[in-house]
Each structure stands twice: as structure tokens, then as C-alpha cells.
Design a protein that fits this description.
There is one protein chain. The strands form 4 sheets. Strands 6-5-4-3-2-1-18 form a 7-stranded mixed β-sheet. Strands 7-8-9-14-15-16-17 form a 7-stranded mixed β-sheet. Strands 10-13 form a two-stranded antiparallel sheet. The radius of gyration is 22 Å and the shape is globular. The protein is of the alpha/beta class. Helices cover 27% and strands 29% of the residues. Strand 14, helix 8 and strand 15 form a beta-alpha-beta unit. It binds zinc ion (2 copies). One zinc ion (ZN) binds next to loops.
Length: 297
């Protein structure tokens, strides 16, 4: 199960109810923080989450509302005995900016930080992939996907019934290979089942472009910025952001299963349902999140 906590859902200016952007994705031992706006540390406290469990930080771009919480977070990890290697990924210039930031704020970390500027697949474990795609937002900017791999698992009941002994042959079955034992053939398809893969895509600040739909294709969950309502689509274009309707169109065209709208302008502080209604006209299975909402996939 993948759990996503929306720590911050505001746009450039935080409001009384919406903090700057930060999203925490938890899957097994992985805690991946996507962006870290100002105030993210206190959002961790409110959500009763431990920042020391963060394994990786993904930065979409270097606008303040997405990164101003990073120096404070790195300091806290230092004071809290963080003892893992911290991976930070981002678009072009991320290496330089992290280096400058550590220097400016005189942050000396006991833990190691590895920074990578990424595009395409940048993490590939036996369980999942992380992918980046550059977006259009005036400065280097990435959208990200978390892709849980489809897996072949042994059906234990069927295995016991088949009388195939436990041992290295099971590894072959898990790879989908048929095996021979004591002169008998055992078919992988009879003793295994597949667990479904899953894709979660995160598209934060960007203007509409022709790379989004193919990048987020078939997402189980598409998290997308909707800074503006449809009435301000010219403004969205000018400021290189997306509207509610555009987010709906991306979800529909990409055949995603569910659309999650975030990064709302403070002008919708009292009317987020307007953004939701507009997106729903295009794509029915849409939700608008507020701070500290949790979704499970
Ligand atoms: Zn932003
Ligand atoms: Zn931005």
C-alpha cells in the first residue's frame, strides 16, 4: 500500500489553512518527500510524522514556495541524529543550489547527502521506479512518477498442494519460469499470481505542454496543480501554471484513474469547490485536497 500525505497545498502565498507545498509518499521503508515549502517541518509534527524517516527528497523546481523549508529540515535532521544517506533529486542547477544553501546557512551535516539532477528513470529498485520529466515553468522544472512494479508471487496454498518442496526452484517460479522436480513439471502459471503495478504521478508547477499526458499515462493517481480556475486561463498561461479544466483534461487524456488537485491560489481559500466543480466537468473522479489529507493507493 502506498500512503500519500499532503503536508501543504497552497500556491505561492500560504493561507491560514494552506501551507506551502510538500507531499510525503510512503511505501514500505521509503518515505519520499516531494517539495519542501516553508513550514513543512511543523506540518510533519501536525501529521504526527517523523522527518527522520525521510529517505529521498524530490524537488520539482527552485521557486520559494517549493523549497524554502529545505534548510530548516536539513538542520533538524542534523540535530535529530539522522544517520542515513539522504538522496536529493531535482532539475538542472539543484547540485549548485544545495551546495550554496549548505554554505550560506552554515549547515554541517553528520549524514551524507547525495544530490542528483535527474531526467528519465533515476531510481530503479526491485519494487519501484522513480521517473522525472522536464516541464515548462520558466525555470528548470520536473514532474515525477512513482511506479510500483508488477510482481509475481507464489500462491502458498497451491504450492503446498503441489508438493513441490521449498527451495531455490521457487525463485524460478517467481520469474515466471516452469520448473522440473523429481521428473515432474510444475507450471509457473498454476502456482503463482500477479500483484498489480501502480503509478502515481505528480505534476506541480507547469504551463500546459505536450509532454504531460504521455508522461502521466495510465496513472492510478494523478496529483496535479490547479492554481487557477477556468476564468483565469489567460493568467495561468502568463504565469506558466495550470487551470482546473486543464488538470481535468490531462487526467482524461492520460486515462488516469483519479485526479487530485492541489497548489490552489489563495483567491480560492473559501471556494475550493469551484476548482473541483470545473475539473469534475471534464473528469469525474477528481478531488481537491486540503492540508494533512491522506490518500491511500
Ligand atoms: Zn508553486
Ligand atoms: Zn513555481
Amino acid at each position: 500500500m502506498t500512503k500519500i500525505t499532503f503536508l501543504g497545498t497552497a500556491d505561492q502565498i500560504p493561507s491560514a489553512s494552506r501551507n506551502h507545498t510538500a507531499i510525503l509518499l510512503n511505501y514500505n521503508e521509503e518515505n519520499i518527500l516531494i517539495d519542501c515549502g516553508e513550514g513543512t517541518q511543523r506540518q510533519f509534527r501536525k501529521a504526527k510524522l517523523n522527518p527522520c524517516k525521510i529517505t529521498r527528497i524530490l524537488i520539482t523546481h527552485w521557486h520559494g514556495d517549493h523549497i524554502l523549508g529545505i534548510p530548516g529540515l536539513l538542520l533538524t535532521l542534523s540535530s535529530s541524529g539522522y544517520n542515513k544517506k539522504l538522496f536529493i533529486y531535482g532539475p538542472k542547477h539543484t547540485k549548485l543550489f544545495i551546495k550554496e544553501l549548505l554554505k550560506t546557512f552554515k549547515i554541517k551535516t553528520e549524514y551524507e547527502i547525495e544530490v542528483k539532477e535527474v531526467n528519465g528513470t533515476f531510481v530503479d529498485t526491485k519494487d519501484f521506479l522513480l521517473e522525472a520529466k522536464s516541464m515548462d515553468h520558466g525555470i528548470p522544472c520536473n514532474a515525477y512518477s512513482f511506479v510500483k512494479k508488477e510482481k509475481i508471487r507464489i500462491d502458498k496454498k497451491k504450492l503446498i498442494k503441489s508438493k513441490l518442496p521449498l527451495g531455490p526452484l521457487l525463485q524460478d517460479l517467481k520469474k515466471g519460469k516452469n520448473v522440473n522436480h523429481d521428473g515432474k513439471k510444475y507450471f509457473a502459471k498454476n502456482l503463482t499470481f500477479k500483484t498489480k503495478g501502480e503509478k502515481i504521478s505528480i505534476v506541480l508547477d507547469t504551463v500546459m505542454n505536450n509532454r504531460i499526458v504521455s508522461f502521466v499515462k495510465n496513472s492510478d493517481l494523478l496529483i496535479c496543480e490547479a492554481s487557477f480556475g477556468d476564468e483565469l486561463k489567460e493568467k495561468a498561461q502568463e504565469h506558466l501554471h495550470l487551470t482546473s479544466v486543464q488538470a481535468g483534461e490531462i487526467a482524461k487524456k492520460s486515462k488516469s484513474k483519479k485526479l487530485v488537485l492541489t497548489h490552489l491560489s489563495q483567491r480560492y481559500e473559501n471556494s475550493p469547490e469551484k476548482i473541483l466543480k470545473e475539473a469534475k466537468k471534464i473528469f469525474k473522479n477528481s478531488v481537491v485536497v486540503k492540508d494533512l489529507d491522506v490518500l491511500e493507493v
